[in-house]
Design goal:
Helices cover 69% and strands 0% of the residues. By secondary structure, it is mainly α. It is built from ten helices and no strands.
């Protein structure tokens, strides 16, 4: 089922989907864990280095004696929070570009879409690595690099959906009634393209989590001593054989987060398709 077939479907929250329930549980667990944990995510304890999982340290400790469970919890703010910020900004930019391209004349549409195609010429992750490498490793550069390569999919999708909506009778009637262009966008076009945008947004969120973790693992993302899942995997790489828990638990956090968000997005897509 293509995204264009669900353009006119009303959004119904997938509150009973396994992914949505799991996502809500993750948020509750993270919130409760941050309040309950007695450890500082950046405080070193050299007397307790590389301790295995125990009653006092559920996930063990890392090479500096820091509690891994606490760092995984705090890492959710970086991995989930940054990815949510990146994909939301990219969605807004891409939606605006797509709407302008669909509503404007032929030349404006041509310029905007050729610009979008030029960004598609490079794989997203490689382009992000190049941008982050040119400006240096930092959290801000990581976010900017991912935003630069994240908006194109939304622009292409919104333009495709908006062109279909623009040709509908109720939009033509609104134009005949001399309704202002921005009101046509807000009242008729935008509500009909948002369902497709939301589906793409959820899928892009999980991909962005992997991108942030991957770039941090390569050293281009969130810098120490901040706890980020990809950076934690980088720290634990040297101890894979002697203390594998340093990589197991951050890796599981990435896996569970991506799987949960993908399940939520798939359920949302299926419900919108069923309502089409």
């Amino acid at each position: 089922m293509s995204l264009s077939t669900i353009a006119h479907s009303p959004i119904k929250p997938a509150v009973f989907s396994p992914g949505a329930i799991a996502l809500a549980m993750i948020i509750l667990i993270v919130g409760f864990g941050l309040l309950a944990t007695p450890y500082d995510p950046t405080q070193a304890d050299f007397l307790n280095r590389l301790a295995p999982p125990s009653a006092s340290h559920w996930f063990g400790t890392d090479h500096l004696g820091r509690d891994i469970a606490t760092r995984v919890l705090y890492g959710s703010f970086w991995s989930l929070g940054l990815s949510l910020c990146v994909v939301s900004i990219g969605a807004v930019i891409g939606t605006l570009v797509g709407l302008v391209a669909a509503q404007s004349g032929r030349w404006v549409d041509l310029v905007l879409m050729r610009t979008t195609d030029s960004f598609f010429a490079f794989p997203e992750l490689i382009a992000a690595v190049i941008i982050a490498g040119l400006f240096g490793p930092s959290t801000l550069n990581l976010v900017l690099a991912l935003i630069v390569v994240s908006w194109m999919k939304f622009a292409r999708l919104v333009r495709s959906l908006a062109i279909t909506v623009v040709q509908q009778d109720y939009v033509l009637q609104a134009r005949l009634n001399e309704l202002q262009g921005w009101r046509i966008l807000a009242l008729h076009i935008l509500p009909n393209v948002l369902p497709g945008v939301f589906v793409l947004w959820t899928n892009s969120w999980s991909r962005t989590i992997l991108a942030i973790s991957g770039l941090s693992f390569l050293g281009f993302g969130v810098q120490p001593p901040n706890a980020e899942w990809g950076a934690m995997l980088l720290d634990g790489k040297a101890y894979l054989h002697t203390a594998p828990h340093l990589m197991i638990f951050p890796g599981l956090a990435v896996l569970i987060a991506v799987l949960t968000i993908n399940l939520t997005g798939d359920r949302l897509r299926d419900r919108l398709a069923d309502d089409a």
